[in-house]
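pinned: reference chain
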Amino acid sequence: MPLLNSPINAILDPRYQEIAVVASTQSGKSQAMNQIILGYWLEYARHHTAFGIANRKIANRVYKTKLKPMFDAVPSLSALLPRGGAGSRGGFPTEQLLTNGALWLFLGAGSAADMSQATVESLVIDETDKADAEAASGKEANPIEQMIRRTDAHQLTRKIVFTCTPTVKAGFIWKKYLEGTCGKPLFRCIGCGEWFWFEWSWENQRIGWEDDASEVSALETAFYPCPRCEMKIHEEERLAMLRFPLWVHDGERIDRCSADEAVAAGPYSEAVVLQDGNAFRVTGERIATRTESFWWNRLCSPFTTLGHLAAGLRKARENETSRHAVTIYDMALPYEGRLIDTSEISVDAILEHMRYSDYRSGRKGRMPFRYDPERFLCTSGVDIGKRELYLVVDVWEHDAEWFLLNSWRCAFLLPYEYPHPEDPRAIFRGLEHVRDYLIRGFHDAEGAVFRPAAVGIDAHYQRVNRKNRRTVPEAEYQVYEFCRQYGLGTWRPVFGEDSLGGEGIVLPSKLDRQRVVLWRVDTDILKCDIHNMIRLKPGQPGFWNLPQDTSREYARGLCAEKRVVDFDDHNRERAEWVVEDPFNHPLDAEVYSWAMARSLGVKPPRLSEAGADPDEEEAVEKEKS
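pinned: its structure tokens
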């Protein structure tokens, strides 16, 4: 496979100590970088060589599927295996001393203490992003950094190879590629004769097909248009082009030369003589770095076809999970996550809601309705900060089946600063002030007084001692103490979690230690509900009504976070709310208030009524009829 010649020869280049290979799956990177290079170091160079892997389970699989077949297929390597000891009769060896004096071992498959005893000259680390991710929850140092430290005794002669399919931009392998020479393979178009890189991304979806009617037609008619002459390169032409690649790194270019100059090029120079007699070589100065990096996608691999890539691309346009797989495994690009469209949720868009209401907030204002406990429910949410409390009061109108019909913001207390922030019981005294504020009640259109039926209080806040940076237990339990003293039916401690894993949205759980009921709430679902209600138009069920005196600070807090959908290692969807503005207290307080409404039976607005524009619904009904 000509594409792999340069990455393999890189282990002999004295200019570089590290080699980073970023490539798509099933494209030959493991065979080249793991098996061929590892075999060379063990048999000919006789180095003490380590194979870095994320954990023992992956190491066992790699040994059985990649390394053991390599020893069995090469007689000269098989003759070097020890006649006794671990791995001589199958099984999984943590390390082996070969008969020629070379030592090879797995790093990362055992404990950190085992890793600290190893000293090697050559190192191959496969699946670097998985090893990097496993360090996030551990107390030890990053395992990749620990593996690299095992080569410090050979800093002048060591060679380290990193291989992985990219996952995210913050992953180890993608950052290592950008730190290096950033090499890409270029191929010569058989039509115009220009050299180009098989670029492929969602912004530049080059792969096409003649007929988009079915997946079968995509398999048969797929092509890649040349970026220079727009010639449609089909599978046969692509395979012919893959025979003569030229690797070009940052700062280099391709020049025409004579056949003699191409043949006489140095061992670490890129040159090629084509079948038509034309010769080319790579010239220019690379950037100064100790890492030589390579990157290719599945369009550069002969182990797949344009048809299969086109069929996968066609499916991925309609399915987010398939899009994630195509991005990483085929395009060899880091997946950035899908940002939910929040273009309508801006400060100005939220404040526009004041145009559709004519009431003011607080006790001096009157709500534009007659408060009927059979139709309306009042709740409140309190978010606890370091020096202040944030309070919101909402009124939710529901139908006979408890589906949300309308929502009003009744009052704000943004923020209430503690009179004495350094007081150990400042949180408790702040909550007492909130209670005094709420117990006076609010007025409806006829002047009748109503009060919140439930108040959700943030119980996740933990105060930290400045001297020893430890959590102060007294401050941690102030919320529970307040709720016990003033009634657990109305005052409820709330603990927000990213996801309750399908258990529910608002769940009460007994806490024997504090003798209170802690309400666990799914913040992902509740924040989505709030953002969906903010997007609604006037007249739609669940519309987010705002009083005339709504502050810009409150609107800023509602759009302080954005939802990003990503995928984990098992290709499962994972949502995360990214904080873009540290002032997110109004959103958290609204989450707790809406959670209390959900706990008392209120349901989100009906999707058929709130999710679509009335004109669009009428068009859909006509189409169905």
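why pinned: The chain has a mean pLDDT of 80. The CA atoms of residues 107 and 147 lie 7 Å apart.
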